[in-house]
Design a protein that fits this description.
This protein is mostly beta strands. Helices cover 0% and strands 53% of the residues. The relative contact order is 0.32.
Length: 118
C-alpha cells in the first residue's frame, strides 16, 4: 500500500476572509484511492460552514466529492476521508478544492501526487 502525505498549494494568492483552508491531504492508493483532508473554517452554525470538498483532475473533472452535512463549530481544524476514488490511468496528480455554504469554492486548491505514478 502506497501512501503520500502533503502536496502544495496551486492557488493561494489572496485568501478571502471566511473561505475554507485546506491544511493537509494524504492519499492511499491500493487500487482505488482514499483521500484524507484536513480543513479549517470559521464555521458559524448552519448559515455558514464548510460543506464540501472535491477530488478533481487538473482539467477540472470532478472524480468524487465529500459532502459535509453539518457545521463543525467546535471542531477546528477537522479531518474527513473519502474512499473509493477511481483515478484514471495516466493521471499522476489531482487537486483538492473545498467550499463553504456562503462563499462557494475557496480560491485555494491543493495539488497532490497519486502514489506510485510518476
Amino acid at each position: 500500500m502506497k501512501k503520500l502525505i502533503a502536496g502544495f498549494l496551486l492557488l493561494s494568492s489572496s485568501s478571502h476572509a471566511g473561505q475554507v483552508s485546506i491544511l493537509e491531504v494524504s492519499v492511499e492508493c491500493p487500487g482505488s484511492c482514499t483521500f484524507t483532508v484536513t480543513l479549517e473554517h470559521a464555521d458559524q452554525g448552519w448559515n455558514h460552514y464548510a460543506n464540501q470538498w472535491d477530488v478533481v483532475t487538473l482539467e477540472d473533472k470532478v472524480l468524487k466529492s465529500r459532502v459535509l452535512h453539518h457545521p463543525h463549530d467546535n471542531e477546528q481544524p477537522f479531518t474527513r476521508s473519502l474512499s473509493g476514488v477511481l483515478v484514471p490511468e495516466g493521471i499522476n496528480k489531482v487537486k483538492i478544492r473545498a467550499r463553504d455554504s456562503k462563499h462557494g469554492y475557496s480560491s485555494e486548491e491543493f495539488i497532490v501526487d497519486i502514489p506510485g505514478r510518476n
